[in-house]
Amino acid sequence: MLEIAMDSHSKVWQSKHAAHLDETGGKHDDNEPEATDPEQLYEASEAGTKTDPQHKHLTVGELFPKAKNKRSSRGPLPKESNWHKIFEEKIRSEGTMEVENQSLQLTNIEKKLWKHTNKAQLINYYNNIAEYILPYLKDRPLSLHIKNLAAQAPGFYIKDMEGHEPDFLDIFSTKRKHKAKGKADVIDYAVCNNLPALLWLINLGCIDLNPWNSTTAHPLAPDFIVIDLDPSDEDFKKAVKTALAAKEYFDEQKLTAFVKTSGKTGIHIFVPCKGFSFPQARNLAEPICAEIQKRVPKIATTEVSISHRGNKLFVDFSQNDEADTLACAYSVRPGKQPCVSTPLEWEELTLKLKPTDFTINTVNARLLEKGDLWADLLNKKTVSANSKILFRSIAA
């Protein structure tokens, strides 16, 4: 896997660009148009494809044995299940690696997820930063965002594991709030608590990882209020200016907030707290966002309707409901480049900052230099101080 991660033009998995690669000796052609059609991104050329000696299966579905747990005794998968989209993926290569005494079956790791980045490089990134990202995933249910064809190809979501999880992936089961035909009354969410589980999810097709704001121990009590600065026109400078306005507000209120890039064109702000319900967190987030928007009214809005925002940045308070998710710190995002949602020092927020400063190729070195800037996100003193201030605002 490391060999393939080092060589983004590996010939084990042949794409429709194989002839071009042969002619250039594996060099990048920056003028080559990006493929956007899923079939073009995924289609493999049979001619000249190197045979993997461990290639024993035709589709990913064949790698999933009949589940042995009680949850999977629901009968066959309903037609509406998105698991079919995973199971139908054809296997061009496969292999097994041992991780913490667990056997992981990896498939199609030579597949291009971005123009210059293959699946092996993505797996390698998550393996290298596991100690940093796992604390932000621990005991938090996940909504799986699957992009198993390519980063910019159509994706889909999976919430219910439906009995298809390996033994080393933890599960959080909760009753479905709104019953749906063909779906079980209980949803089994994935919970990523260890390295084998992390790499299994990435191989499955997750590029980004989106945990709840609460944990399995206290599912109805968020650990932070989250604010998503989302520029309608993808102008990152608007996100920076609005984040700086937010910092002014937090300093005035004596609130401690943590900031990170979204990994796309926005910025995420987390305000750690405890003792609130999700409705209370939502009710706190709305006036906070309104106060931030008032400081930069020419570039920001709290207008929920997309059609009414124009080119203004949306100061989004809506990610504070039960089971809502945001990409966690150090998660890669499925955008135009393999950018990473990266914790920042507030002093780093300048108009020179770019989301592309933080990719799977740069974040490791940054961590070695700065360490985890969000390590104190749930520091007890910080959480307690923030909570007292927020409770006073509710009382007022």
Would you kindly provide a brief summary of this structure?
With 396 residues, this protein is an alpha+beta fold. The chain contains eleven helices and 15 strands.
Shape, per Cα inertia axes: globular
Strand content: 15-25%
Structural Rg: 22 Å
How many distinct helices?
11
pLDDT < 50 stretches: 13-39, 42-53
Taking the alpha carbons of the first and last residues, their distance comes to: 58 Å
How many separate structural domains?
2
- Order of strands across the main sheet: 13-14-10-12-11-15
Average of pLDDT: 87
H and E order: HHHHEEEEHHEEEEEHEHEEHEEEHH
* Secondary structure category: alpha+beta
Relative helix content: 25-40%
Say how many strands there are: 15
Helix-strand layout with pairing:
Blueprint: H1 2-6, H2 18-24, H3 38-42, H4 83-87, E1 94-99, E2 102-107, E3 112-114, E4 117-118, H5 119-128, H6 130-137, E5 141-142, E6 144-146, E7 156-158, E8 170-175, E9 186-191, H7 195-204, E10 224-231, H8 236-253, E11 258-261, E12 267-272, H9 278-295, E13 300-301, E14 313-316, E15 343-344, H10 363-370, H11 380-395
Helix pairs in contact: 5-7, 8-9
